[in-house]
Here is the input.
Amino acid sequence: MRKIRTAVFGTGFMGKVHTEGIRRLGNVEIAGIAGSSEEKARAFADQVGVERSTGDYRTLLADKTIEAVHICTPNVLHFPMAKDSLLAGKNVLCEKPLATSVADAQTLVDLAKEKGLANCTFQNLRFYPLVQNMRRLREAGEFGDILAVQGTYSQDWLLYDTDWNWRIEKSSNGPSRTFADIGTHWCDMVEHVTGLRIAELCADLQTFHKTRKKPKGSVETFTGKTLQPEDYTEVPIDTEDFGAVLLRLGDRARGALTVSQISAGRKNRLFIEIYGTKGSAAWDQEKPDELWLGHRNEPNQIVVKDPSLMQDAAKSYADLPGGHSEGYDDTFKQVFRRFYKSVEDRKAPVEYPQFVDGLRQLQILDKVLESTSKHAWVTV
Ligand SMILES: NC(=O)c1ccc[n+]([C@@H]2O[C@H](COP(=O)([O-])OP(=O)(O)OC[C@H]3O[C@@H](n4cnc5c(N)ncnc54)[C@H](O)[C@@H]3O)[C@@H](O)[C@H]2O)c1
Here is the structure.
């Protein structure tokens, strides 16, 4: 079997989950790890058992035997890393958001096309088996015409002004925090499942903590809670903690979304509800193996994930039989499997979100920021 050699850039939360996910495939080997310094990269590579490490990702791009890269670094590094990787002839799987501006995302879409390379924006949350089942039920007409969508993506890990992460600062994160970080996942999912495009929106972003206490050392994702409240610098904050967005989708559907990183007790609640002329569906990422189906004239149902009972077109997104849960981790394997099929055979059908899908999310985000500053409805 041909082994595809790949590299992982970034040694934090996503670096680890990507490394584990790649290894579940069998036909892909990790040829190198790039970190923010030689020391950090080496420590991570030792932890995950990878021989080669570097503090400069460009040394891995110079290796002709490496065919693909995974970009798992803070958002502002996505554009330069993805661009350099495409120019070096690598297939690129980039974490979301694809870039921090529409213009940069468009450059990456164009460059990937020009180079004929596989390109993926990692909107992995659409790959939960029951999200795919919901999409296929909608395609089969089970919900009728979609009238309304609503939901939230809520977390609590940045509730306190002592909570800190690179996402809080525009210099590492880009102009939006909560919407860019998690709102884009919700919008990607709602467009994917309903087949409708967000056409207009009215957004209200809010920064509750006008200042935060910034620790003097660096902090990786979800680790801030263990820090003691000492050695902080008080800094002004200009990225949002919360957002509420009204939506118009397609010709007539309406919707509403909240995004939050300050909702105590909500750890990672992506909740999506779809209401159509015949029926409804609702799904919650914190209970990923259950899909609620709502009916007007018969009892509602809770469908438990079981590939043998899912829509045919959704079955390949579940690997385990009913009663054996599949969660967040498994979405990585599902995307990677499809991405590397494309790397292996550039003519294979593309069954994963591409850079163009990342560009789409940045276009929506741009309009969310515009609407907030204008206090007005805007067209996407
Ligand atoms: N798809 C998802 O479900 C999901 C979940 C979390 C994060 N993300 C995305 O993944 C990306 C990384 O987020 P994270 O939560 O892993 O952050 P993190 O802070 O845990 O990790 C970022 C890593 O990048 C490293 N880094 C910084 N500069 C670097 C450089 N020049 N070269 C190589 N490495 C460098 C840091 O040292 C750190 O290890 C973000 O863009 C985020 O939006 C996606």
About this structure: The pocket of nicotinamide-adenine-dinucleotide is lined by residues 9-15, 34-36, 40, 57, 72-75, 77, 95-96, 122, 124, 166, 181, 220-221 (CB under 6 Å). Residues 355-374 form the longest helix (20 residues). Residues 4-125+338-353 form a domain with the Rossmann fold fold (CATH 3.40.50.720). The first strand starts at residue 4 and ends at 9.
